[in-house]
Amino acid sequence: MRVAIVGATGAVGHELLRVLEQSTLNFDELQLYASPRSAGRTLTFAGRELSVQATPEGAIDADVILASAGGSISKALAPAWVEGGAVVIDNSSAFRYDPEVPLVVPEVNGDAALAHRGIIANPNCTTAIAAVAVAPLHRAFGVRRMIVSTYQATSGAGQKGMDELLTQTHRVLHGQKAGAEVFAYPIPFNVIPQIDAFGENGYTREEMKVVWETRKIIGDESLRISCTAVRIPTLRTHAEAITLELERPATPEQARELLRAAAGVEVRDDPASQLYPMPLTATGKYDVEVGRIRSSLVFEGGLDLFVAGDQLLKGAALNAVQIAEYLQQRGALRGRVAG
């Protein structure tokens, strides 16, 4: 069994290496690929130094390719990777809305991965984090409407986004004026209510990703969703405030009990002890933190909750590796016979 990472030197690529070290995925060889300017670099995996190769134009001799090099690279090269015999788990937006490509969060719709035709899409980070928390409630009570406000870390813009937060914060703290290259405005001590480009309906593409992808993952096109996505000056881990209108009324106690038993969820919900989800506590965790669970004051029988999940883990690298684990556990990844 041969595994390849395309985009190995990026922020998600580094997390893929860490997650693979701890995963249950059984493989024999790991190959690392990145842009030509990163070729020749070495990265550490399981105590060994592995050399990074330039991503080839054609097929890659691997059984599973974890791709995180951007939508243009995946769009151009993934068909050749599949033609060469690989299963591609793609972290970009290149194939998420293709009806022939499953969009998978294993805790929610893992079986969809088994119907792949060579490519499986990893959801947008914000969507993946929300879906882990909302899907169990949807199955039990039926979600009719979902209103989401996100508080997204600079890690959503990759390593360059995190670097800009650190360098520009340093400038402000030393009496200098902050600049902006990655973001539309300076990010230190600021929040920016725009992530991605605005569409004709006034929503950004990031906000519409939550709408489109949540419906596809949960399997309910009738679900009404509205989202406001905001960039905040934290390094990693996205947080989300979610309001749910339910078809069947639910109490906060019922929701807590259900979510405590849900895969991929850690309930942190004790306001009296100031216990609730935060980027500070969710960073580095595989599970998505869920708390502030309370009855909605707007929708009778509905719920309000607050969610925090590590954008680079469940929102990206971890989910991709979990898809590969899911396939292998069900006998859908067998590797190749040597010779």
Can you describe what's shown?
The chain has about 350 residues and is α/β, with parallel strands linked by helices. The protein folds into 2 domains: about 1-125 and about 315-330, 3-Layer(aba) Sandwich (Rossmann fold); about 125-310, Dihydrodipicolinate Reductase, domain 2 (2-Layer Sandwich). Helix content is about 30%, strand content about 25%. The protein has 9 helices and 13 strands. It has helices at about 10-20, 70-85, 105-110, 125-140, 160-175, 205-220, 250-260, 280, 315-330; strands at about 1-5, 30-35, 40-45, 50-55, 65, 85-90, 120, 145-150, 225-230, 240-245, 265, 290-295, 305-310. The strands form 2 sheets. It has a 7-stranded mixed sheet with strand order 3-4-2-1-5-6-7, sandwiched between helices. The longest helix has 17 residues, at about 125-140. It is globular and about 55 Å long. It starts with a strand and ends in a 10-residue tail after the last helix. The relative contact order is 0.16.
